[in-house]
């Protein structure tokens, strides 16, 4: 039977960002340094395949520090942790290695500085996400207000926020955040903006790349985990750019082939910042088996940022 023709537009940049690459490397180097007995608090990055691969290499993932034996090495995930977790680890005599992405760390530093200078802080982000929990945990008391959606502004005690500043989660949708900031500034015209952009380069670049393919595609598949903030935002951005049929899939096994439109002629593929490239290859292979594929990579920018590992871990190639 002749296979149906399909053009696949592959967004680039996609997949692993510098912060995720660093976090994974930290676990691998720590396993080598400590002889394979290393604990990791929470998923190192939000991807079940990455977690499984590291478990196979010996990493032990835990939810709470109480599960880590006294004196053991424990790694904090790329999303960052509240100060109280660092304190708990110290009290327990654990050897900590921090895999918090330096760009999340930058937001932490900013929040602490603002709080010390007497600012009330508004954090734009999603409740319950580990990065938001970590950022909120950089200050004590009630000097931080979480703003998830414009309606939350109604609850904001404006008088108490006369001296205020805002920061954002690093992996939000740029367009939605611009809108919420505009509404925030209408309420608090004097509010201080962040020193740089809090939404990170990797999030920005992946959203720009998916925007560049959205209008050309009948359907877009975003590879990523359901708990990955930046992956979910890619689906939203693709839809808002006109590709209504945009879906999140964890891997090729989650593709419902009967849901692929029978008249499809163009498909877009991208991957969230924590999704390994081999998942993209597996997806392409599966499409090649069913369709006559013409592959077109759409590259919107080059990424060459790399982050240093913590001093305790010095892999040979960076010496
Ligand atoms: S998505 Fe951005 S903030 Fe998150 S790990 Fe990657 S570079 Fe860091």
Assembly level? single chain
Distance between the termini: 56 Å
Residues in helix, %: 25-40%
What is the 3D shape? Answer: flat
String of helices and strands: EHEHEEHEHEHEEHHEHEEHE
- Could you say which small molecules are bound to this protein? iron/sulfur cluster
Strand arrangement, largest sheet? 10-9-11-1-12
Rg measurement, Å: 21 Å
What is the number of helical segments per DSSP (H or I, 4+ residues)?
9
- E-strand count: 12
How is this structure best described in words?
This protein has 319 residues and is an alpha/beta fold. Helix content is 34%, strand content 19%. It folds into three domains: 4-16 and 201-299, Cobalt-precorrin-4 Transmethylase, domain 1 (3-Layer(aba) Sandwich); 18-101, 3-Layer(aba) Sandwich (Rossmann fold), CATH 3.40.50.11270; 103-187, Cobalt-precorrin-4 Transmethylase, domain 1 (3-Layer(aba) Sandwich), CATH 3.40.1010. It has helices at 18-33, 48-56, 83-91, 102-116, 130-136, 174-187, 201-214, 229-240, 277-290, and strands at 4-12, 39-41, 60-62, 73-76, 95-98, 120-124, 144-147, 164-168, 219-223, 246-249, 266-271, 291-299. The protein has a five-stranded parallel beta sheet with strand order 10-9-11-1-12, with helices on both faces. The protein has a four-stranded parallel beta sheet with strand order 3-2-4-5, sandwiched between helices. A three-stranded parallel beta sheet has the order 7-6-8, covered by helices on one side. Helix 8 (229-240) links the parallel strand 9 (219-223) and strand 10 (246-249). The protein starts with a strand and ends in a 20-residue tail after the last strand. The mean pLDDT is 95. Iron/sulfur cluster (SF4) is lined by residues 17-20, 78, 101, 103-104, 170-171, 200, 202-203, 230, 273. Residues 17-20, 78, 101, 103-104, 170-171, 200, 202-203, 230, 273 line the site of iron/sulfur cluster.
